[in-house]
Amino acid sequence: MAPTDQRHEHALQVFLDARPELRETLDHLNPLLAQAKGETQAQYREERLHEAFEAEAESLALFAWELTLQLTADSPEEYQAQRLEVHREVAEMAGMAPLFKTVLTTRREARQATCPCSGSRATKKRAIWPA
What is the pLDDT of residues 102-113, one digit of tens each? Predict the structure, then answer.
């Protein structure tokens, strides 16, 4: 299993462990619904889990991959660093690395000019780490 897949599987486990009512629901799905879709019970359960995970990400104004990073990062700073790395990789693949670097530098300079505490920045997205 690739590291990204392992990270996502770990995030799904953390997500499910924090929601015993969801686990209970998933453990008691109607097997006829799986059969009607031509899936095994395990496949049907996994699909419902992924749907719940994506719905949670959407409710937090995140993409599912961002929620995966949040649930597996040890701190908000680690999450931000990992998120930035994903954006950097995408920019490189799209041939936009120089533009990405310029935007990143400009944003950092603007943040430092407006925020004297530039060590950490608050975001509009809800964080999942305890205060």
Answer: 655 555 555 554
